[in-house]
Amino acid sequence: MIRWFKKKEEPEYPEFWKSYAAKFSDKPVQQLEDIRFVVLDTETTGFDFRKDRMLCIGAIGLKNNVIDVADSFEIYIKQERFNPETVAIHGIIRNEKVTMQTEADALTKFLEYIEDAVIVAHHAGFDLGMINHGLKRMHLPNLKNSVLDTMPLYRSTLINSNFVDKTRGYSLDEVAEKLVISTKDRHTAAGDAMITAIAFLKILSKLKKSGATTLKDLLKIR
Amino acid sequence: MRNTIAERIADFLKRYPPFDLLKTSQLSEIAAEVKVIYVEKGKVIFEESQKGHDQFYVVHKGAIDIQRNNNGKIENLDKCDEGDIFGLRPLFAKESYMITSIAAEESILYAIPISIFKPMVLDNQRMGEFLIESFASNTQTPFSKEHHDMLYTGREEAFESTAQLYELQPAHFVKNLVSCTREETVKDVAIKMSQNKVGSVIVIENECPVGIITDKDLRLTIAVGKYPIDVTVDKVMSKPVICYPKGITIAQAQITMMKHNISHICITKDGTPNSKAVGIVSEHDIIVSQGNNPSVLMKAIKRSRKTKDLKNIRSRIMMLLNGYIQHNIPMTHVSKIMFELNDATIKRVIERSILKMDRQPPVKFAWMSLGSQGRKEQLLTTDQDNAIVFQDVKPEELEEVREYFLTLAKKVTKRLNAIGFEYCPADMMASNTRWCLSLKEWKEQFKNWITEAGDDEILLSSIFFDYDISYGDVRLTNELSDTIFKLTNNHKLFVNTLANTALRNPSPLGFFRQFLVESNGEHKDFFDLKKRAIMPITDAARVLILQYQVKNINNTAERFEKLAELEPQNKELYLSCSYASKALLKFRTKQGILHNDSGRFIELDTLTKEEKVKLKRCFKSIHDVQELLKIRFKITAFL
Predict the structure, then answer these.
(1) In chain A, N or C: fewer CB atoms in 10 Å?
(2) Is residue B167 part of a domain?
(3) What is the per-residue pLDDT across B370-383, written as a single tens digit (0 to 9) for each?
């Protein structure tokens, strides 16, 4: 009768989504040492969430200050739409000799890999937007993981000085330069993910000194 | 699945032994299981008598100190650099570690699982030998075969202490020989010597050394007119060459040099003049390796070819500083020497960076060191603060010229960082567009700062009263100083605001004469020596000296001495301030050496009673000079 109050019926999701969703508990782990972080980066055909598509997802797992190469993820996605302009940047040529997956397969594998890890990315909004739009095309809801963005995290480590503009953004290149990280592998998804991961560890050690020890503390930083 | 990260790790490992001995497939297998570990400076990776890890380590970035506790005394056995391996014990034996490894600087390590690696070693004899050698010594000069059976038996006398008996260590020799043939003319050889900045050239025939030409030979033959300058070298060279095989000890080298009255020894393959020349040991290098002589260090800086060399020299400079402090050498002397050494380092880095650019600087420029280095008070390596001023150019060329200097500045700051001068946290560096300006722009900038004297602007311009030109054309910086002085003259408001900022950090003692400690942040309950004591006294000196328009005295202690001369009525106060500034600097340096940091934050509990009293006496001078500022510049009590 009063249909508005009735809870909207959950659509029936596929098995892989259900097992992904089941990984999340009501009480997420808070101590940073115990959390599995997954640092990721996506390469895309452009910046339009609706029109553009992901070319590649690169990700690497990290726990208790140790990056585990065995826990990495790298997947290339078949394109229906091809934008020659982006090829130069990313060096991923269409049908290059790596195994390619459809977007749906890639994302299914990604969900299997990521589980309930906390996602870390530089300018995370963009990568998350891309992934979530991909999930939407599969008629799935958004990712359930907590997300940390290394950009504001880095900014919060800068000293409080009137000479530092606290509102401006910092590109991954700038952050890497300031934290003295080699940027040899820029513009491959996995390479960027690795740079971001090292940046994240360096930032984390700085933040820990100023008292951030739980996930909650980090999520507060904007 | 393709794994870019593992590929990169494999690429890195491949460049270093023993991984260069592995097959590509084995390397990929290892790389895919590597764990990448980030460690902060001072973090312990494993400790003596701790159970062995199931992995060993490769340094990817940074440096790791290997230490051993010898009856309560910590001994540094070795320093592992990029590509070095350590923590090998668990690979050989199920025992606990016998050494401690600790991060000498912020580092990134690759941890390699032993379960995967060990089977590969057992299959590969050469690799096993290499590992045994590096395990046995962890130095550049592996021990002999004593440790041969270890991989399989797991017994050994680990780490004979070699570090103490300096003279018995093998002499380090230069591997890239500068050589010539008999037929070359003396002139060409002399040119070769100055290009390579060496004092000697080996004359080679069929790869074997047949003679040597040194600065001394040139002096004794050509310079006195015995031969014309176009004579062939075999006329003037010294022969035969004294040769030794590699591994000659420092003591042996020194005795040989004394005996034959020579300054160079040639290292050949079998130690006779009839085999291939592989290197040269010079008296100079031996002295440099002993390390504590400023003039030798200075020469080493000027000859350095790599940032890594400068970094090594840097650590020797620190040893020198440590020695000075321990022997109570007067601070004025110490800071002068340290300033010169730092200055030479910066100059050398800039010189080398210009060579790395695709062309010479388009116009004249000057590199200014600001802050503590500008005041000649930088003893420990702290942050780098610097700026560039370049000659005025046509407006349409301005951006292109700036682009050049920004690129140059990036190279310089990056190298300085690698040497140990950390980046300025407020980004006050020449690589920032705001600090890389033409002369005209700088003048404009100062005019804005001084006439619109807000607190920030004052602070910014005050930094520039303490600059020192490190490199380039001194006329540019002189013109800049003149402009600043002209602007500040007759600008009462500016000087008053400057005095005001000098008081922004009140006297470091609380009402009950207790130390004021930090109330929050990373250094909670520590005493901030820089903010509470060094900055107030530096600021006070600056504003007082500015009244008299005294140029070119930047050092705080010297400024107070000058003031004592100018105002005899306040002589006592100023001299006590001069003393205090030196004492504080020494204090900071001592603390810095003790804790291997910038010495800025002090844990009060670790101070002795005497030190506390000394500090408090310095604070009394700070308090008095602040009172004087308040009266002189009529700054009211509410500040």
Answers:
(1) N
(2) no
(3) 888 888 887 776 78
| Fold classification of A37-220 (topology level) | Nucleotidyltransferase; domain 5 (3.30.420)
CB contact under 8 A, A67 and B35: yes
B279 within a domain of the structure (yes/no): yes
What residues of B are in the A interface, CB distance below 8 Å?
Answer: 1-6, 8-9, 31-40, 61, 106, 108, 111, 417-418, 423, 425-428, 456, 460, 521-522
**Are residues B94 and B24 part of one domain?**
yes
Do B295 and B439 sit in the same domain of this protein?
Answer: yes
Closest to A190 (Cβ–Cβ): which among B5, B460, B522? B5
Collapse the DSSP code of B26 into the 3-class scheme (helix H, G, I; strand E, B; otherwise coil) and give the result.
helix
B639 located within any domain: no
- What's the pLDDT at A88? 53
Which residue ranges make up each domain of chain A? 37-220
Q: How many CB pairs under 8 A join A and B?
A: 87
Nearest to A194 by CA among B16, B11, B9: B9
| Whole-Å CA distances, B266 to A92, A159, B234, B235 | 54, 54, 17, 20
**Pairing mode, strands B264-268 and B243-244:** parallel
Tell whether A65 is within 8 A of chain B (Cβ).
Answer: yes
Residue whose structure tokens are 């005025």: B392
Option in B4, B36, B427 nearest A58 (CB): B4
Whether ipTM tops 0.90, in short, is no
Facing residue for B426 by CB, picked from A70, A159, A188: A159
Of the three residues B235, B263, B289, the one that is the final residue of a domain is: B289
Where does a domain end: B157, B188, B216? B157
CATH number at residue B282: 3.10.580.10
The CB-side HSE value for B55 (13 A sphere, CA atoms) comes to 16
One domain for residues B273 and B310: no
B247 and B323 in one domain? no
* pLDDT at residue B523 tops 90: no
Whether the CB of A56 is below 8 Å from some CB of chain B: the reply is no
Q: How far is CA B528 from the centre of its chain?
A: 24
Q: Please compute the mean of the pLDDT values over residues B487-512 and round it to a whole number.
A: 73
Which of B31, B417, B522 minimises the CB distance to A209?
A: B522
Mutation for A interface: B4, B43, B407, most A CBs within 10 A: B4
Q: What pLDDT, on the 0 to 100 scale, is given for residue B236?
A: 87
Q: How confident is the model at residue B164 (pLDDT cuts 50, 70, 90)?
A: very low
Q: Which domain holds residue B467?
A: 291-490
Chain centre distance of CA B236: 40
Residue type, B201: V
pLDDT in tens, B143-155: 333 333 333 333 3
Contact B529, B584 (CB under 8 A): yes
Residues B277 and B302 occupy one common structural domain: no
Phi, psi at A38, each rounded to 5°: -120, 115
